[in-house]
Structure formats: structure tokens, C-alpha cells
Amino acid sequence: MVEHSCGLSHINMGETLHNISKGIDTYSLRIPLGVCAGITPFNFPAMCPMWMFPFAMTLGNTFVLKPSERVSGAAMWIAQTMKEIGLPKGVFNMVHGDFDITK
Predict the structure, then answer these.
(1) pLDDT by residue (tens digit) across 13-48?
(2) Which structural domain, as residue segments, surrounds residue 49?
(3) Less crowded by CB within 10 Å, the N or C end of the chain?
(4) Kind plus residue range of the DSSP H or E element containing 64
(5) Is residue 24 part of a domain?
(6) Measuring CA to CA, which residue among 32, 34, 30, 100 is closest to residue 64?
(7) Is residue 42 exposed (0-12), middle (13-18) or buried (19+ Cβ within 10 Å)?
(8) The domain spanning residue 41 has which CATH number?
């Protein structure tokens, strides 16, 4: 999925069709959504984020990852790798949390 997302830049360009009917042209613009988020389950702590954030970031969005509170080590490794490769601050974000069991 990561390898496929690296080739998405040519898909993101949009398209223009001239004279689809008498005097009618059409075009499509593909613009970023802005902020994308992903919540990962405990049984796929690395694979699910790898399905999500490469597509979001390749297409011009920022990404917020909320890993499982049970196994957050893989997500921490991903975040550390993003920092080491020089990704600008705010492009890949991570939020930790747990559910409240008290009433």
C-alpha cells in the first residue's frame, strides 16, 4: 500500500474533457480534504496505519493517528520514523488515549 501510494501524484491531477456534447466541456478538480484521521485496532497496530496515512499524505492532507491503547509501540515507531525522515511538523500527528471506565 505504501508503494502504491507513492505513485498517486499522477492520479491527483484531475482531468479535462472538451466537447463531450455540443458546446459542453467538463473538468474535475481533485483537492485535498485537509485533515484525515485513522483509529487502529489492537490486532493490526502497524498494518492499518500503513493503509491509511500514506494515501492521505501523498494526496496533500495531514493525518492524525489514534493507535490502540493496548499496543502503541508500532505507532510510536512510525511517528519516530516520520520525524527522522524530516517530515514537517503537523503533517503526521498522533493522539494517545483510553476510554474512561468510571461513571
Answers:
(1) 778 888 888 889 998 888 888 999 999 999 998 899
(2) 2-94
(3) C
(4) strand 62-66
(5) yes
(6) 34
(7) exposed
(8) 3.40.605.10
Q: What is the pLDDT of residue 92?
A: 96
Q: What number of other Cβ atoms are within 10 A of residue 51's Cβ? A: 14
Q: Using the structure block, give the residue that is written with the C-alpha cell 488515549.
A: 97
Question: pLDDT confidence of 4, banded at 50, 70, 90?
Answer: confident
H helices present in 1-103, as ranges: 2-5, 47-58, 73-84
As for how many domains the chain has, the answer is 1
Q: pLDDT at residue 86 above 90?
A: yes
Length of the chain: 103
Higher pLDDT, residue 93 or 2: 93
